C-alpha cells in the first residue's frame, strides 16, 4: 500500500496556443552573485527548474533608457501553497519556478523573473509564503522590507498581487494581522495597485460573483482593502487569463510604497534594528477614521480664524492668534516628546522580545518534521506487521474482513454504521481486503492511542480520566483565554515540570516504557482476536513489539519538548479525529483520494495532524494555525480488487 501523499501544488497545464500568444523571455538579474540553489529553492520533491538569482529590482528608469522597454515590476505575495509560483509558471506557460511539496517552502527568499510581452517586460517577484513551517511571518515581512529597501538603488513597484486559494480560510487571525501589516507597508495611497486574487479550480462555468462573495463580506480581512481601492478578482491558473491580468498593471507607472518612503528615501539603508522597530510600530497601528487631535485641532482653528476674519477686524484678534500659535507650538513639542518616548519603548520591547527568543532553541520546522517522522514510523510498523500477519495467519478462507472470526465485535471496535460504513465494511456491505484492512486498522489504532495516552493529557504521566489532569487542563484553558503567549508558555512549562517532579523520575521511566506494551495488549491484540479468532493464537514477533516501544518512546520524548521546552513559539497540539467525523479539507488530507472524490465523513485517522495556538492576551482567545493536516481514510478509498 502506498504511503501518505503530502498535499502539493499541481503543475500548471497550458496549451501551445496560449503559450505563443505573447513572446516569453525569461531572464534574471545578474547584479548579485547567484545563490546556492539549495538555499534559494530547498525542498524534497517537486518540479525542478533552472537556478534563479535573488536580487532587489533594478531601477526601472535606468532599465528603460537602456533597452527602450517598459519595465513593470509586480510583487506576488500569499500564504505557503497558495499558488504564487504556479501563477508565474502559468504566465510563462511552462515551469520556471519550483513548486512546494506541501511541507517545505520551495521559495526561501524573494526572486524575480522577467516575462517579455510586446514593449512590456513584466518583472514578476516570487516570494516565500506566509504561514509556513520554515520561519515566522515576521521573518517573511523582514525579508520583504530588505528586498524593497536594501538594494543598491531604491526601485518603485507597479503593483502587488496577493494570491488567496479558493479553499483558503478567511477567519484566521494570522491572515487578518498580515493584511493589516501589508496595508501599513503599502500605504493607503498604494492600495489601488493591490489585487487580491482568488485562485479557483478550472471547471466549466464559474460564478465569479458567488466565489468572491466571502472575500467581500464585511468580516473578511480583505474587505477594508477593497473599500480603500484594492481590486478583488478571481482567476484560473491558465496562461492567457494570467497575462491579461498582468497587462492591466502596465497602464500605471511604478511608485514607491509607504515603507520605502519611510525607511529609505533619506538615502540611508535601513538596518535590521530599523526594520524590527518599523514592523513593531506597524503592528500597533489601529487603522480607521483619523480624528483631529491636539496640534491638528489648533492648526485648523488658527487657519479658520486667519482665513475668515476681515482685514479690518484682525487687529483686535492679534492676541488670540498669538495665543493659539503658542499653544500650537507647545502641543507640537509635546507630540514630539511622546513620539520619542514611544520609539524608546518600542526599542525596549523589541530588545526584550529578542532576549526572550534567545532561549527558544527549537524551530517550528523541526517540530513539524518530528511529527512527520512519527507518522512515518507508524506507517512503517503497520505495513511490516500487516504483511507478517497476512503471511502467517491469513489464508484462502480469509481474503476480506467479511470472513472475520467475530465480525460483529470487529464492527463494534471501529464504530461501524450500517448506513455509512467503517474500516470493516463499506456502506454497501463489502468487506475490505485483509492486507489493506490490517494496514489502515493498525495505523488507526496507533494514532488513536498515541493521541489518547500521550498527547491529549496535559502530562503523559497522567491519564485523561485522572481528576488532576482534568483540573490542570481547566486552569490551562482559563489562562489561554486571557493571558499573553509568554505568560501562558511559562505557566505551561512550569506546571509540566512540577507534575514530572511529583510523579518522580523512576515512575515516569516505567510509564514511558510501558505504553507500548499496553497498546499491544489492550488494543492491537483484541482487534486481531476478533479478526482471526482465538484458535489462531496470534503472536506478535519481538522485533515488532520492540519497534512499537521505540515509537511510543519517541512520541513521549517529543511531547515533553512541546510541553516543557517551548514558550513563545506557541502551544502545539497533535490531533487525531474520531471515526465518522465530518471531513474538513482545512485540517484533513484524504489518503489516496479517488478522482472527483468529495467525502462528507471519515472512516479513521491514520496520520496525526498538528495545530499551533498562540495566545493574544487581548481577551479574544487564541490564534490557531494548522501546520500539518491529519491524514484520514474515507470510503472513497474502500475497494475490492
TrEMBL record:
Domain G: residue ranges: 74-131
InterPro entries in UniProt: GTP-bd, P-loop_NTPase
Signal peptide, first to last residue: none
Coiled-coil zones: 321-348
Organism from which the protein derives: Thanatephorus cucumeris (strain AG1-IB / isolate 7/3/14)
Keywords: Coiled coil
Keyword Coiled coil among UniProt keywords: yes
A Pfam entry, by short name: MMR_HSR1
Name the UniProt record assigns to this protein: G domain-containing protein
Chain residue ranges for the region called Disordered: 1-58
GO MF annotations, alphabetized: GTP binding
UniProt keyword Coiled coil, yes or no: yes
Biased composition (Polar residues): 1-33, 42-57
Amino acid at each position: 500500500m502506498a504511503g501518505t501523499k503530502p498535499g502539493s501544488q499541481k503543475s500548471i497545464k497550458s496549451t501551445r496556443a496560449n503559450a505563443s500568444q505573447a513572446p516569453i523571455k525569461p531572464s534574471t538579474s545578474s547584479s548579485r552573485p547567484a545563490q546556492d540553489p539549495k538555499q534559494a529553492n530547498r525542498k524534497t520533491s517537486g518540479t525542478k527548474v533552472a537556478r534563479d538569482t535573488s536580487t532587489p529590482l533594478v531601477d526601472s528608469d535606468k532599465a528603460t533608457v537602456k533597452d527602450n522597454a517598459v519595465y513593470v515590476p509586480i510583487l506576488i505575495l500569499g500564504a505557503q501553497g497558495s499558488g504564487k509560483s504556479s501563477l508565474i509558471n502559468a504566465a510563462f506557460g511552462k515551469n520556471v519556478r519550483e513548486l512546494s511539496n506541501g511541507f517545505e517552502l520551495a521559495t526561501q527568499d524573494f526572486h524575480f523573473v522577467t516575462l517579455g510581452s510586446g514593449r512590456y517586460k513584466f518583472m514578476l517577484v516570487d516570494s516565500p509564503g506566509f504561514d509556513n513551517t520554515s520561519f515566522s511571518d515576521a521573518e517573511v515581512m523582514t525579508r520583504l522590507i530588505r528586498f524593497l529597501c536594501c538594494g543598491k538603488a531604491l526601485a518603485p513597484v507597479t503593483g502587488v498581487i496577493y494570491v488567496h486559494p479558493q479553499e483558503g480560510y478567511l477567519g484566521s487571525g494570522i491572515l487578518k494581522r498580515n493584511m493589516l501589516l501589508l496595508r501599513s507597508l503599502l500605504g493607503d495611497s498604494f492600495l489601488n495597485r493591490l489585487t487580491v486574487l482568488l485562485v479557483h479550480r478550472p471547471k466549466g462555468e464559474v460564478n465569479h460573483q458567488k466565489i468572491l462573495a466571502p472575500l467581500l463580506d464585511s468580516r473578511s480581512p480583505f474587505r477594508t482593502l477593497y473599500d480603500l481601492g484594492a481590486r478583488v478578482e478571481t482567476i484560473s491558473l491558465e496562461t492567457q487569463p494570467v497575462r491579461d491580468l498582468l497587462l492591466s498593471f502596465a497602464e500605471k507607472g511604478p511608485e514607491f510604497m509607504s515603507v520605502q518612503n519611510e525607511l529609505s528615501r533619506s538615502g540611508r539603508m535601513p538596518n535590521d534594528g530599523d526594520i524590527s522597530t518599523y514592523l513593531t510600530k506597524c503592528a500597533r497601528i489601529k487603522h480607521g477614521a483619523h480624528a483631529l487631535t491636539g496640534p491638528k485641532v489648533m492648526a485648523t482653528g488658527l487657519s479658520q480664524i486667519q482665513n475668515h476674519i476681515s482685514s479690518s477686524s484682525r487687529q483686535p484678534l492679534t492676541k488670540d492668534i498669538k495665543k493659539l500659535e503658542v499653544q500650537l507650538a507647545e502641543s507640537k513639542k509635546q507630540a514630539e516628546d511622546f513620539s520619542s518616548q514611544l520609539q524608546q519603548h518600542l526599542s525596549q520591547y523589541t530588545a526584550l522580545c529578542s532576549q526572550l527568543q534567545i532561549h527558544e532553541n527549537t524551530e517550528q520546522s523541526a517540530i513539524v518534521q518530528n511529527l512527520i517522522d512519527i507518522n512515518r514510523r507508524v506507517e512503517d510498523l503497520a505495513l511490516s506487521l500487516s504483511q507478517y500477519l497476512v503471511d502467517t495467519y491469513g489464508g484462502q478462507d480469509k481474503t476480506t474482513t467479511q470472513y472475520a472470526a467475530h465480525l460483529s465485535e470487529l464492527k463494534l471496535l471501529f464504530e461501524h454504521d450500517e448506513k455509512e460504513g467503517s474500516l470493516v465494511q463499506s456502506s454497501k456491505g463489502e468487506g475490505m481486503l485483509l492486507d489493506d484492512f490490517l494496514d489502515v486498522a493498525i495505523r488507526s489504532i496507533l494514532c488513536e492511542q498515541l493521541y489518547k495516552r500521550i498527547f491529549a493529557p496535559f502530562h503523559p504521566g497522567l491519564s485523561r480520566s485522572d481528576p488532576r489532569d482534568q483540573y490542570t487542563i481547566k486552569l490551562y484553558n482559563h489562562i489561554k483565554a486571557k493571558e499573553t503567549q509568554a505568560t501562558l508558555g511559562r505557566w505551561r512549562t512550569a506546571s509540566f515540570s512540577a507534575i514530572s517532579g511529583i510523579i518522580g523520575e523512576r515512575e515516569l521511566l516505567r510509564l514511558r516504557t510501558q505504553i507500548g506494551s499496553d497498546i499491544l495488549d489492550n488494543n492491537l491484540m483484541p482487534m486481531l482476536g476478533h479478526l482471526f479468532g482465538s484458535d489462531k493464537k496470534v503472536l506478535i514477533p519481538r522485533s515488532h513489539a520492540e519497534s512499537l516501544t521505540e515509537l511510543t518512546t519517541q512520541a513521549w520524548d517529543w511531547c515533553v519538548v512541546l510541553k516543557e521546552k517551548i514558550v513563545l513559539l506557541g502551544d502545539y497540539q497533535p490531533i487525531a479525529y474520531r471515526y465518522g467525523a465530518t471531513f474538513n479539507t482545512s485540517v484533513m488530507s484524504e489518503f489516496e483520494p479517488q478522482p472527483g472524490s468529495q467525502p462528507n465523513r471519515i472512516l479513521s485517522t491514520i496520520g496525526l495532524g498538528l495545530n499551533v495556538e498562540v495566545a493574544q492576551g487581548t481577551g479574544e482567545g487564541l490564534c490557531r494555525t494548522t501546520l500539518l493536516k491529519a491524514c484520514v481514510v474515507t470510503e472513497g478509498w474502500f475497494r475490492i480488487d
